[in-house]
Amino acid sequence: AWVVHGNHTKSGYPIIGSDPHLAHKIPSLFYLVSYKIPNGPLLTGASMPGLPLIAMGRNEDVAWGITVSYIEATDIYSITRNTTHYYYNNDWHKLQQTKHKIKVDGKKDVNYISYSTHHGPIMHYPSQRDVGTVFGVGNAVFMDKPLALAWSGLKDVDRTFDAIMKLNMAKNLTDFIQGCLIADSFSASFAFATRSGDIGYYATGKVPIRKSINDSLYVRNGSDPANDWTGYYPVENNPHVINPKDGFVVTSNNKVGPKNIKNGLGTTIPTTARAIRVNKILKEEIRKGKGLDLELMKRIQNDVFDEYAAILFPKLVSLAKLHKGTFYSSQSTEMKEIDITLQALSNWKGDMSANSKQALIYNVWYKELFNTLFTTMFTDTFERESIISSFFADHFLGNMISRWSNGENVNEAMCENKENANLSQKCLYNVVSSLVAAYRFIRNTLGSSQKNWKWGYLNRKQFAHVPFSVSPLKMLFHRERAASGNRNTVNMAGLHYIKTDYKDCIGPQYRMIADLQSISKTFLMADIGQSGSVFSTHYDDLLDDNVNGEYIAYQENIKGDFLHLTNNQRKHSALSLIHI
User: Fold this and answer.
1) Which is nearest to 27 in space by CA: 460, 528, 561?
2) Mean pLDDT in runs of 10 for the chain (580 residues)?
3) Distance set, CA 580 to CA 16, 371, 516 (Å)
4) 370-376 long-range CB contacts below 8 Å, 24 or more apart?
5) For residue 78, what are the CA distances in angstroms to 216, 217, 232, 451, 533?
6) How far is CA 322 from CA 368, 419, 425, in A?
């Protein structure tokens, strides 16, 4: 999400763009709704089943978007236990037991007992690995002991509903901040704007006080009191900014502050290519001095330029050209395939459009390179997927590619695999061999003719219906479309890097752009449709408009299905919903 101050807009009022990226599914998590609270505000935006409020959107005075902040609100503790007690502070303490009866359709009930420590509930996994060593610190070990989860959201009082209600009813900056301060059960980044002219950012959620913030990166010894949380920082200390000098705020899952910020939050959150891209566009447009508008917001939300690729691509090409002769003879099949592929990559800057040949080659090459890493360190596919799919992995690989370009760290253990075990430049071999693998994958999948080499032919946005997308009825329920972008573009198309296909699963589930001048200047879009019934005309009627970057304009006095909610105790109207 991002907001721009009215000093830089054509209307003179703040404008906002919001597009949370989540896993696509049918029915969608969000649905578009407008409603009027009696004697209260008119609202429009995205709600969720069971929530009679707007989760993200706007009223006539305030607009907001939400993204994940990645605040370190959890820790994992290794636990020493027996059947009834766990060991802590040189003594045995009784485990808390909770009995659960799980109803199973057509079968007997399943009786299950969960156990908890003072840290939190015990999780049950066959093994867990501390991954600190992968990124340069710590020792990687298998955790055969039970693991307990500590989470700041596991508390007796959850004020999430009260917080959302305050946001919905907010009339000004003070009202909105009050809502953010009590939204302490979940870690989120709020970008917001008011009709009175304020813009800002607030990170929500309780942040635990630890002996060292770096400890949150690793599995901690649950028997040692020194590893306990000692309380929570005041939520008022969470990162926030009101009316910044730059005239805009960008979240996009981005790093919320430097490493020395209070709470240590800047230590465990990376920057993102998407935030870099949005910042770059907004700065360029503000510098022009012509005033920003909602058309620019649309363009940003549909942008598919990868800022990381623009940096890493020329380095990878240089490495491949420089070292291809080290590993393959000039007359070898591999050398011919490398030359064909490098020629096809010429004159590319980083555009990830569905019709781009170069985007296809780069993304496959990048994925194949990732798949040469950590293969001897992490033999479990799930563990490697967890490493490679993180934002940290992009930073890590980008840093390593820069080092390789300088002739450094070319024989790292993380690069070792069966093909290069006896080579002295394992990492450079992986760069070159992964380009060969990319060519062969594309040729075998799309054919030898480069007319068919288009990113959208491979990059397919998936909309899975649970459970019917994994049943013989998949053809009826499942949807997919050609997609632009990748996981680093503003218009995101997130892939699983371990899987052999290119069926992306993550992207914008909901989009909003709004001008605070008037609620009528609001445009929304959901990713698939408003209904979960395949027989409904609204099952997927928004899908193509969403993929094509279209929006639904807010309409007053809309004709549609009205849901009139009442309070049975007070016997009066509570809410009217209009499904759009």
Assistant:
1) 528
2) 97 97 90 88 92 93 92 88 95 95 92 93 62 39 73 83 94 96 89 97 90 72 92 89 96 78 68 93 96 97 96 96 96 97 94 97 93 83 72 84 91 89 93 97 96 94 90 94 93 73 84 97 94 93 94 76 48 35
3) 21, 44, 21
4) 370/397, 370/497, 371/434, 371/497, 371/498, 372/415, 372/417, 372/430, 372/433, 372/434, 373/397, 373/414, 373/415, 373/430, 374/134, 374/414, 375/416, 375/417, 375/418, 376/413, 376/416, 376/417
5) 13, 13, 22, 54, 44
6) 19, 20, 13
Q: Which residue has the tokens 């060519």?
A: 439
Q: Amino acid letter at 526?
A: A
471/260 Cα distance (integer angstroms): 51
Alpha-carbon dihedral angle through residues 401, 403, 409, 414, given to the nearest 10 degrees: -30
Dist. CA 426–CA 414, nearest whole Å: 9
- Residue the block writes with tokens 């993304």: 363
Question: CB of 533 within 8 A of CB of 539?
Answer: yes
With 0-12 / 13-18 / 19 or more C-beta atoms within 10 angstroms meaning exposed / middle / buried, residue 135 is middle
Q: Is the dihedral of CA 432, 437, 439, 440 positive or negative?
A: positive
Instruction: Locate 199 and state its tokens.
Output: 């813009």
Please say whether the beta carbons of 419 and 432 come within 8 A.
no
In order of 72, 233, 446, the CA distances from 264 in angstroms are 9, 11, 48
Rounded-to-integer distance, Cα 270 and Cα 391, Å: 7
Could you tell me the two tokens for 329?
């003879």
pTM across the whole model: 0.88
Tokens of 68: 């994940």
Q: What phi, psi does 543 have (nearest 5°)?
A: -60, -55
Q: Please choose, from the candidates 65, 62, 52, 169, the residue with its C-alpha nearest in 3D space to the C-alpha of residue 519.
A: 62
Q: Which amino acid is at 298?
A: K
For residue 445, give the amino acid letter: T
Alpha-carbon distance of 391 to 349, in angstroms, equals 22
- Of the candidates 524, 432, 385, the one whose C-alpha atom is nearest the C-alpha of residue 63 is 524
Residue 41 to residue 64: CA distance in whole angstroms: 15
Q: Which two tokens stand for residue 82?
A: 């027996």
Length of the chain: 580
Both structure tokens of 569: 């105790």
> Tokens standing for 450?
């480069």
